[in-house]
Structures are given as structure tokens and as C-alpha cells.
Give the backbone structure.
Amino acid sequence: MYDLELGVACACVASILFDLGVALQALEARDVSHRHSLRPSLLGRLIARPRWVFATLLAIAGWPFHLVALLLAPLTVVQPALASGLLLLLILGDRMLGERVGPLEVGAVLAIILGVTGMAWAAPEHTTHHAGAASLAPALGGLGLLAVAPYLARREAAAASVLLPLSAGCAYAWTGISSKLIADYLSVSAWTPVLVWAAATAGMAFFGLLSEMSALQRRPATRVVPVVFVVQIAVPVLLAPVISGESWASTPLGGLALLGFLAMVASGAAALGRSPAVSGLVAAGVDQLGERNGVQPAGGEPVSE
């Protein structure tokens, strides 16, 4: 039982680092010209900015906590717990931006807390094994295809569509599943698969980061954050019985309780993502930065090359 609690705690720490990293990364992404969207040159421009590099290192620092969480607790519990970082963004948005926390935000916070607590209560038994290639290939292949879809379509059309935040969410869902595989191999000290899957995870994270930064350049944060969070949280959980060896058959109501609690977490994350306090924090400082440097605010075309 203590392993489960410690796993949830590690997932919460990972979430805080992930979300703080994204919030800081977004402050820089919108100050780069839109013509770099969906191109590696966008990250090339951003990597020259110390604040963006610090934010990226902050997010990377969350990954070991994510792996430890998966070593201790089921994927079904760990992924929903990643929504907990939104609570910190809500507090920071309230303190830094003065955005009022109303009934919607309070309800969303309660939904996340109750949902994650319920997922931990109804959790299936933790496993250190996963499905074979016959099950993994369709799941990871489908998610991977959605993650790279914007790069296969017309760039301008993809950049202006919901395909972009969906791509980021699918890429992060893919890395959530691959992190579970890495944790399984770590548990038996199988170092070659660990290195192979770590490299694949880094590659998919690159697509996720590029899609997310491009989406935040073009679309309001209120239309990016909810999609990314809900997809990366919900999809791995829904696939867990197929890919991670976690049986829901013995859980309350044969898995229906887990689905209900997952719906609570997802709806709470979506609501907080649309909240001015959270989405404003992701976009905040951009307009202020633009006004100070003569750059057009987020809705217009940034002038930085």
C-alpha cells in the first residue's frame, strides 16, 4: 500500500515539474515567428533562450519521478495523478495574475482530487510486465501516427487546426506508455531495452514538444492546454488493460468505477485548462513581454526571427 502512495506522490512531483516547465516554455514560444511552426527551427530558436532551456530542463527533471511512480504504482493511477500539477498552476495564476478562482475552478480541483483518490482506491494490481508486440504495435503505432500527422499535412492548415494540440497530446500519451515499458525493463535490469525505449521516448517527446510549442504560437492557451492534458492522461489509462497487463476485472464494478473516476479527472483537467488562471499563466507575460519589446501580442504575428 505504501508503494502505491509513494508512486502517486512521485507522479505529483513529476506533474509539477512538467507543468511548470510548459508554462515557462510557452512564454518564449509565442515570441518566435509563426513561420517556424512545425519546423525544427522553432526549437532551434528557442534553445538559444536561457529561460526556455531552464524550463525544458525542469520538465526533463520530472521524468525520473514519472519512472519511479510507474515502478511503484499502476499506469492506471500514475497518469491521472499527472493532472495534479494543474492545481499549482491555478494557485500561481491566482497569485501572479490576480485571476479570481471561482466555483468552476473549485469544482475542477475537487474533481481532480476525488478522481485521483478514487483511481488509487479502485486501482488494479501493479504489474511489472506488459503485452507483446501484437498488442503494443497497434496502440503505439496509432498514437505515433496521430502524433506526426501535422507533419504529413499542409503545414499552414495543420498549424491552424485542432490537429496540433491533439498531436502533442498523443505524443505525450505515447511517452507515458513507453515510460511504463522502461519501468518494466528497469525492474528486471534489462538495460538494452531500457536504452532503446529511452531513445524512442526522447524522439516522440521531441514531436510532442514541437507540436505543443507550435500550437501555443497559433492558438489560445484555452484551446491547447485542455486537449493536451486530457489526451495524455486518458489515453494511456484506457489502453492500460490491453498493453500493461493491468486487469480491471477485479476492480470495483469491473472497471466502471475506474472509468467514472477517470472521467472526473479528465473533466477537471479540461476545466482548469480553460480557466483564465491556468491558461492565463501559460499565455501571461507574453503580451507583457511583447509590449515591452515592441512585439505584437499573442493574437498577432510575432516579429522575433
User: Anything to note?
Assistant: Residues 2-29 form the longest helix (28 residues). The chain has one domain: 2-293. Residues 2-293 form one domain. The chain has 14 helices and no strands.
